[in-house]
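Running this now, will post back.
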Amino acid sequence: MAVRIDKWLWAARFFKTRSLATAAVAGGKAQANGERAKPARLVRVGDRLRVRVGSYEYVVIVRALAERRGSAREAAVLYEETPESRAARQRLVDQHRLAPSLRFAGRGRPTKKDRRSIDRMRDDAQD
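Update: finished.
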């Protein structure tokens, strides 16, 4: 048995809607067994998927198939995340948590001096 990758990603709760899953796969955000996948690619038990959701990347091994979206508990049974993937995501979470906030903390519009300070902070964060 096999299931379309976009359906499986939606059923496994990587994306909120099937159309978001289809768009992500079509946009190159999913790979199956090291190859770029199209939305209609069939996923089988044992396949290794690399999925990018926002700034996070998941590397999972398909353990079960589903065409319908169920509860979060049912979705957790569909795949097993690799330990390396889990560690990499945790490092990214820590980096996001420790990164300086780019929001203006004052009231109203920032002054010209505040704007320059914000721009400097953004430039430093991008480097």
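DSSP finds five helices and seven strands in the chain. More later if anyone needs it.
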